[in-house]
Design a protein that fits this description.
Number of helices of chain A: 15
CATH superfamily of the largest domain in chain A: Type I PLP-dependent aspartate aminotransferase-like (Major domain)
Structural class of chain A: alpha/beta
Order of helices and strands of chain A: HHHEEHHHEHEHEEHEHEEEHHHEEHEEH
Oligomer: homodimer
Largest interface: A-B, 143 and 144 residues
Number of strands of chain A: 14
Strand content of chain A: 5-15%
Chain lengths: ~500, ~500
């Protein structure tokens, strides 16, 4: 049964007390809306029958008004699409169009004051949104995702819609999914947790945001790895926290240096499994020092374990959270790397005594996560597709990583220091005597998406070089992409 | 082709330098994980072949270890499910289970300080999450949603997965959806907007949260309707704003009273189309006064238009935003009422000159909304299903509302003042001489979900009565539910 699509009813103020006849009131309302650009070319208008029912009047005046609007060229009818606003409008009525982006804003009256903390936010494009092309960071191999399986689960859950699946959900997340994640984290990541400690969030970014709001006050200081993850800086800055950059060396964050810089910091954000961007694994002794500091200073540790599932030269490293006897670690994980980013699902593991407060914060911020994608993901994990996909991708990304390291060594020799290629989906190269930002800008014009290493430093200048993603570059294209990169570097350096 | 599901590999540290043989190392790792409750009854373990590949060792020691674990009852194999941890574990090894929710928390060492603002959050259950039963607020008629159509769009989009649909998306939202919403809002709500002013959020709650973070600083004061929407209070409280309750009368928020209470407030949150919870429509003169105040004091207006699509006695009322010549209104809308709450999609309409700042805030908070549900919804609107669903629901909820008003009048007579039944999915009744909280607690034990009206007041005591949802109560059940409600009130009053 094919139904003609129905249009949206415009706001038409019908007034029987007016001397203007009803058909004229309707005609004027539509013509005004079209001339004033509320209704635009191609917009559907409701059928006369539906509009009569919406307005609570007879169809006759509406038929008259529509006939006139059609005769004058404002409306046209299309078979199967009903009545729409014409693409070609009569009598140059379309001249006064409101200004769009790029044009100067109208001169609004009055002061337009925004929050001070929002001034701290960078206004540029996120490094995570780039066009197709080599080296974008945190990009997955989209063609390798098991769509057939995923889609069959989607279809299955479509059939199961119920009151529970449509209604407001649990602020912590769907219990089936929390259970599946807890099992996975205990087994594969050495995390100590029960399902009720898991909160489903939209990704690491929201996880960090919620933890920050619950744990830190404005003005509190927080340790960040230097260099570190630039998008995490936005969370702290937007909350008005003071970021203390703590240097990273071959063993990860230098805890002793952190204590010198700010012993009483309220929290530390770390990436112990695979430091972003340098790729170092935090040593056991540093992990213990960090836990010791947190306990003695009453501070919190935010462990961002964003891509620890992919480790190519050895088994994955157990989480810092699993070593912590004092429940000072908030563990943050995401499905953006192991499944796909547009899914917007990640999770927090929250110490038992803080669960109620985190839950309340979640309700205040956005009530609860979407339910449908959680159900699909819960089944994807329960039925073993998740672990199978992880295994396949670990092999695939391992090959891509090795090919990338080989190509860089072949082309650049010892001039480039390569770090972080043994895990995750990105590696970093450090180069001396270049301007990494200028080169990245030039490379973007050739569809090569480099994140300048210097942008990961709070205190400039740091190392010069690039964070290079290899997740979406097939092995056979890597050599070519690396050559293109090097010729860009050479040209910019010349 | 049926594959046996694959289990997650546990963290096993294989050390060839140890004198302990490999099969013993594997046996000990699994036994330790089971005894320590990292692995639990029913958890799947990987096949010997997969584990050999993950650990980079031969299959022989793994086969030996698995055989022993199975012989001792730790593992069992199930046809089609592979090897799992046994449900019945041997030798009472399962005794020392970590304490779960409800038990006392372990005595962690060190100070456990949380943010001051998180202390302002209510720790109880949200009023939006209730069991099945009459009168839950903001509950839709789940059985009336056009699943067949929605699901066919879901299936269509499953087939269309591409790099764009999997990757990080636009922080503002999918452009097709923003365009569809802009057209709808211009036509049906009288909102002045271009697609680039629309930001997709997870619902009104997140919309209000983002606007608050961008527009207000800690300590700033903000007008809220008194009585007003209690979940909105959490947003302001969590951000450290001072809430100024401004009385609502028959014309909506009393602007003159607001100016007396706090002329220099930085913002006002209003529900002009259908005041929550009293259901008043803000009069034209109040709207102009409010806009005038905002301009002269340099303040912002947050217009929450949460259920304005459903209006039963007249056409919907045009938005306040459409009257505003100075771009001082941030318009907040949601699909939770017109589609379903678990979808978690809503939108902001942002003044052009503030778009860049809102966008930056959105990136900091959670990067971007999930992409899949946005594509489905964009088609649902474009193809006319949305407007058809709106029309059907307007008729259905109109009938339910009238039946509810009739039943209350029949049963309670003039003792109850009924407000707000001419729009939305909730109405309020005011009753004298009752304890609404006590009655609501008692009613919940009988699956009647009442929100006490007094909870909508910041300054207690306000009116006594209830906010009653009629969205999910079929007409034929309304009389019975109202009778049950009244006998509960009478019993509690006795």
């Amino acid at each position: 049964m094919k139904k003609v699509a129905s249009g949206i009813s415009p706001l038409i103020a019908i007034d029987r007390a007016l001397r203007k006849p009803l058909h004229r009131q309707i005609y004027d309302a539509y013509r005004g809306a079209i001339v004033g650009h509320s209704l635009r070319a191609g917009d559907r208008v409701p059928s006369t029958r539906l509009l009569a029912s919406d307005l609570g009047i007879s169809r006759i005046p509406i038929l008259n008004a529509y006939a006139q609007l059609q005769a004058e060229g404002y409306f046209e009818t299309r078979v199967g699409a009903g009545t729409i606003v014409s693409a070609s409008l009569p009598d140059q009525m379309v001249a006064v169009r409101p200004s769009r982006t790029g044009a100067a804003f109208p001169n609004h009256r009055g002061v337009r004051r925004l929050s001070k903390q929002s001034e701290a936010l960078p206004l540029g494009e996120s490094p995570l949104r780039r066009g197709p092309g080599a080296f974008s960071v945190n990009q997955i191999a989209v063609d390798q995702f098991p769509f057939q399986i995923w889609n069959s689960l989607v279809v299955r859950h479509c059939r199961r819609a119920s009151m529970n699946s449509l209604n407001y959900g649990n602020p912590m997340g769907l219990s089936e999914l929390c259970g599946a994640i807890a099992t996975y984290l205990r087994t594969a990541r050495g995390v100590r947790c029960e399902p009720e400690q898991i909160m489903i969030v939209s990704g690491s970014q929201q996880g960090l945001e919620i933890a920050t709001r619950v744990l830190l006050d404005r003005g509190d200081s927080v340790w960040m790895e230097e260099p570190g993850y630039s998008l995490a800086r936005s969370v702290f800055a937007f909350h008005g926290c003071q970021i203390l950059p703590v240097p990273v060396d071959g063993e990860g964050l230098n805890v002793a240096a952190g204590i010198k810089i700010g012993r009483s910091a309220r929290a530390a954000l770390v990436t112990p499994s695979h430091q972003h961007p340098l790729g170092v694994t935090m040593s056991a002794s540093r992990r213990l020092q960090l836990l010791q500091w947190a306990e003695s200073s009453g501070s919190w540790i935010l462990e961002d374990d964003y891509d620890s599932e992919y480790r190519y030269e050895s088994m994955p490293i157990a989480s810092l959270q699993g070593l912590d006897a004092n429940a000072r670690v908030i563990y943050i994980g995401t499905f953006s790397k192991v499944l796909f980013p547009s899914l917007r699902l990640g999770y927090l593991v929250i110490p038992q005594d803080l669960v109620a407060r985190f839950r309340a914060a979640r309700v205040a911020i956005d009530l609860n996560p979407p339910v449908f994608s959680q159900s699909v993901l819960a089944d994807f994990i329960h039925e073993g597709h998740f672990s199978r996909h992880l295994r396949r991708m670990r092999i695939l990304y391992g090959e891509r990583s090795r090919a990338m390291v080989r190509a860089i060594r072949d082309e650049l020799g010892p001039a480039a220091e390569i770090t972080g290629g043994d895990a995750g989906m990105n590696l970093s190269i450090t180069l001396k005597g270049i301007d990494d930002q200028a080169i990245a800008d030039e490379a973007a014009r050739q569809n090569l998406w480099l994140v300048p290493l210097s942008s990961s430093y709070l205190r400039r200048p740091g190392r010069q070089g690039f964070i290079l993603g290899f997740g979406n570059v097939p092995v056979e294209q890597i050599q070519g992409a690396v050559r293109k990169l090097i010729s860009t570097i050479n040209r910019a350096g010349a």
